[in-house]
Each structure stands twice: as structure tokens, then as C-alpha cells.
Design brief:
Elements lengths: L42 E2 L12 E2 L28 E6 L5 H14 L7 E5 L5 H7 L3 H10 L4 E4 L9 E7 L5 H14 E9 L1 H11 L1
Length: 213
């Protein structure tokens, strides 16, 4: 059924102004606040358009040590339930602002405790600068980082089907045809284990998700 566009689930602790979608990239966007998860190693950030050096690393705050596994006999596995269906959060954004909105969502995911390896980011239009940078070293190196599964992975629509499932999938509807979005959004929903965040035009997203999910 269609998703009613509204502000994503935001805790009272989230700061910053709220704004409606705007045509420019400078408008602030709503920021989703997912529940905390164990922190993991830092990830590379987004490189500048003219910098040949690899991106600087960004480390999630409040990293906590992993708890040791309890001793004794293993508990029986819980049966699968319908709760496995991922939650969907919609962040209204213009085509030009969708990538920035996705970046803010990723930043907040890391700050809230999500591990970088939990997150997959898909773009429907222009490649994310990180993906373009890593692909400059060759596809083998690019996909090796995906297979390692310990860092955020950025993929464009054309190769998104090759990406494995992750707990959180963020989609930036930053261009491309309606047919591309209609293919990517159901795919992203299928790849998301717990949370799907979509940044883009609410009317277009609702019409696609309502028909394809």
C-alpha cells in the first residue's frame, strides 16, 4: 500500500531545522534516527571531485566493545516472523538534493551506532563520488570491498542487483528515468534486512513502492 509521506521517525534528541523539499541542494533535510547498533571500524568518506588521494576515514561515535558470547548450550533459533519486513523511511528531497539527504542519513546511522558494514547506498542517477573513486582502481578492487562487508558500500542502479543484502539500504533518487527508479526501489526493499531509507520525490516514491512492494 502507498507510503504516506511524512517526516521520518525522529527522536526528540535529533537537532537541526526541518525543511520541506527544495529545488536547491542547500535546503536541510529531515534526518532519520534508527535505533543504536554496535559500532564497527571506520569507513572512507566522500572524496572531493578533484582530489586523487583516497577519502579520509570517518569513525562512528560512542563505539562500544562487543559483548562476549555466553557460555553453555546454545539457545534454540527463534522462528522466522513477519517482522522481518523492513521498515521504510521517506526523506523528501529534490533530485539535486537527494544525494546530500542520503549522506546525512548515513552520517546519522553511524552516529547512532550502526556499523558501516550494515549499510548499502544506491543511487538512481549520478554515481556517488566514493564509488567513482574506487572504480578508478578497477572493478575487482571495488567489488572486493563489497565482498569484505566491513564498510559502507555505494552502488549505482546499473550494478545494484549484484549487491548483497544488508540491514540498512539507503536509496538516493538523484536522477535517472522513472523506469530506473521503478526497478531500483523494489530491489532495494528486497535487499534491506531491517530499514529502507529513500531520499527523493515523495509522490514518485509512493507510486512506485505502492505498486512494487
Amino acid at each position: 500500500m502507498p507510503l504516506i509521506p511524512e517526516e521520518p521517525q525522529i527522536h526528540e534528541s535529533a537537532q537541526g531545522p526541518r525543511a520541506t523539499p527544495a529545488s536547491g541542494r542547500t535546503a536541510p533535510t529531515p534526518r532519520p534516527v534508527p535505533g543504536p547498533r554496535p559500532a564497527a571500524p571506520p569507513r572512507p568518506g566522500r572524496p572531493g571531485p578533484f582530489r586523487p588521494a583516497p577519502p579520509a576515514q570517518r569513525t562512528p561515535r560512542d563505539a562500544a566493545p562487543a559483548k562476549p558470547a555466553p557460555s553453555g548450550p546454545a539457545a534454540p533459533a527463534a522462528p522466522a516472523t513477519a517482522s522481518a519486513t523492513p521498515q521504510i523511511q521517506l526523506i523528501p528531497a529534490s533530485v539535486d538534493g537527494a544525494l546530500d539527504a542520503a549522506e546525512e542519513a548515513v552520517d546519522l546511522l553511524l552516529e547512532s551506532g550502526r556499523a558501516p558494514g550494515d549499510v548499502l547506498v544506491i543511487t538512481t542517477g549520478e554515481q556517488h563520488p566514493w564509488a567513482a573513486h574506487e572504480l578508478s582502481f578497477g572493478e575487482a578492487s571495488y567489488w572486493a570491498q563489497h565482498d569484505a562487508g566491513d564498510d559502507i558500500f555505494y552502488a549505482e542502479a546499473a550494478v545494484a542487483e549484484r549487491a548483497a543484502s544488508r540491514p540498512v539500504v539507503v536509496v538516493a533518487v538523484n536522477g535517472g528515468s522513472d523506469a530506473v527508479a521503478a526497478t531500483v526501489l523494489p530491489l532495494a526493499h528486497a535487499r534491506a534486512g531491517a530499514l529502507l531509507i529513500v531520499c527523493g520525490d515523495p509522490q514518485k516514491i509512493n507510486s512506485i513502492l505502492g505498486a512494487g512492494v
